[in-house]
Amino acid sequence: MTCDYSNACDYSNESRAVRADLRRFDDAAVLTVGGEIDAASVPQLRSAIDQALRDQPPLLVVDLSAVRFFGSAGLSVLLVTQEAVGAGRLRVVASPQVRRPIEVTGLGTVLDVCDDLAQALAVDALPEIA
Description:
Elements: E1 2-3, E2 8-10, E3 18-24, E4 29-37, H1 42-53, E5 60-70, H2 72-85, E6 90-94, H3 96-104, E7 112-114, H4 117-120
Parallel strand pairs: 4-5, 5-6, 6-7
Antiparallel strand pairs: 1-2, 2-3, 3-4
């Protein structure tokens, strides 16, 4: 794994090519992930999400629009993350390859799935900060 100053990590030397880039804003952390998410690569996804949550952002957006394959291990990570952050504080931007398993498993009723990053970051849909 290699990381640079912009919080971008490249896991391409691992068993699956996964790329994660973290950007922080006032009201949200945006984790952009690309590559294939399966049992072999899910530890890198979990690690990237843990890093994104370190500062307890009001909203975490996991942008999976560049993910080419998304297995059940990835679904599990999203569910665990949803439980950890609480309702309304996680949004998932889904590629068709990610949206399909979410819809087939019925997790679209649990996860807040968005079509694009702009929708995920829409101000009128941001959670209230206590």
